[in-house]
Design a protein that fits this description.
Shape: globular
Radius of gyration: 19 Å
CATH class: Alpha Beta
Oligomer: single chain
Structural class: alpha/beta
Low-confidence stretches: none
Mean pLDDT: 96
Bound molecules: zinc ion
Helix content: 40-55%
CATH superfamily: Metal-dependent hydrolases
CATH architecture: Alpha-Beta Barrel
Length: 340
């Protein structure tokens, strides 16, 4: 079983840097709830997600609460949750039913269904109804092209599905593909085209629009900032520069806190260099660190540090901070639920 141990380093960072930044009420707009059994890959115990099988086979609402209680003591957290997007073969039905069962006991929280571009309209509508979901979680790994690195939005989410989201004013949690993420011209043009053609869709661009450094969103913000149906979550982005570029580029009122749990409680950091970004953790580096305290803290804390320090230039008022952590997300999900 996954075991969180808060050590003196973690405690120091929380107490000295973060506890005065995180408000009492939090809406986490990017949370995964899942069961290992939804991963139908026969070789899953040696596959890319084997860390899940080894550490936490079921990520329930209660486990997420436990993690948040440890990492952000005293905070009350509501969530927008959706399944973990396992590669094919994935049990979509079980994935969605599990999230729904976990979330429906928590009236203040909401859920999205995991979809793939092969699903027909009937399956999608049934999935929405049986899960009482307020939108979709597509993912690039389900691209019709088979190329998960260079696919366009409509390669992994059919336009018919976007049309359903438009008719029902649903949320689409969008993790962009392509090597330059949101800085890719095709992605920018697709977002402009799709948001103009389907104006009722509420897009959330995950991970600062997949801009783990400043350059991506710096380029895209000029073109996306006027689109009224796009929001951004800052889950797992750990560089202040990226958050600064997002806050100043699209406006902090479009930005929402998200954890991408169970990523937050892992130790490490998402770092960037050149035009690249990656997770660095205790098991994948060979840096010589004798000159300093070499321990790593939680990705959650590195993200919160970046959210805090990235706001130096704009200066967050209490109202803006509460919006960033709660009100913007709450208003967004309520705007969808009120139409249901
Ligand atoms: Zn995620």
């Amino acid at each position: 079983m996954f075991n969180l141990e808060i050590n003196d380093l973690d405690k120091k960072i929380w107490d000295e840097e973060l506890s005065d930044f995180v408000p009492e009420k939090v809406y986490d707009v990017h949370t995964h709830i899942y069961q290992w059994q939804s991963n139908l890959d026969k070789n899953k115990n040696t596959g890319p997600y084997k860390y899940q099988g080894e550490n936490f086979q079921n990520v329930s609402f209660d486990l997420l609460n436990k993690v948040d209680n440890e990492l952000m003591p005293g905070r009350v957290v509501e969530r927008l949750s959706f399944p973990f997007p396992y590669n094919y073969p994935c049990d979509f039905n079980n994935s969605n039913q599990y999230v729904s069962a976990q979330t429906n006991n928590h009236q203040e929280s909401d859920n999205l269904i995991l979809i793939n571009p092969m699903m027909n309209e009937k399956e999608i509508i049934q999935g929405l109804q049986s899960s009482q979901a307020i939108g979709f979680k597509p993912y690039r790994t389900y691209s019709k092209t088979g190329d998960i690195t260079n696919c366009r939005i409509t390669d992994f989410m059919s336009e018919e599905h976007i049309k359903i989201a438009d008719e029902k004013s649903l949320i689409i949690m969008m993790h962009l593909s392509k090597k330059y993420g949101v800085a890719d011209d095709e992605n920018i043009n697709d977002l402009i085209f799709l948001s103009e053609k389907y104006p009722n869709v509420k897009w959330i661009l995950a991970h600062c629009a997949r801009s783990y450094s400043a350059w991506g969103i710096e380029k895209a913000a000029k073109k996306l900032r006027d689109l009224k149906n796009i929001w951004y979550d800052c889950s797992t982005v750990c560089e202040s520069d990226a958050l600064d570029a997002l806050y100043t580029g699209v406006g902090v009122d479009r930005v929402m806190y998200g954890s991408d749990d169970m990523i937050g409680p892992m130790r490490g950091k998402y770092i960037s260099f050149g035009m690249a970004w990656s997770n660095i953790n205790e098991n994948n580096h060979s840096l010589k660190l004798d000159h300093c305290d070499s321990r790593m803290t939680f990705i959650r804390y590195e993200q919160l540090r970046a959210m805090k320090r990235g706001s130096r230039q704009i200066g967050l008022s209490v109202k803006q901070k509460n919006a960033l952590f709660y009100n913007t997300a709450k208003n967004l999900v309520n705007s969808v639920k009120s139409l249901y």
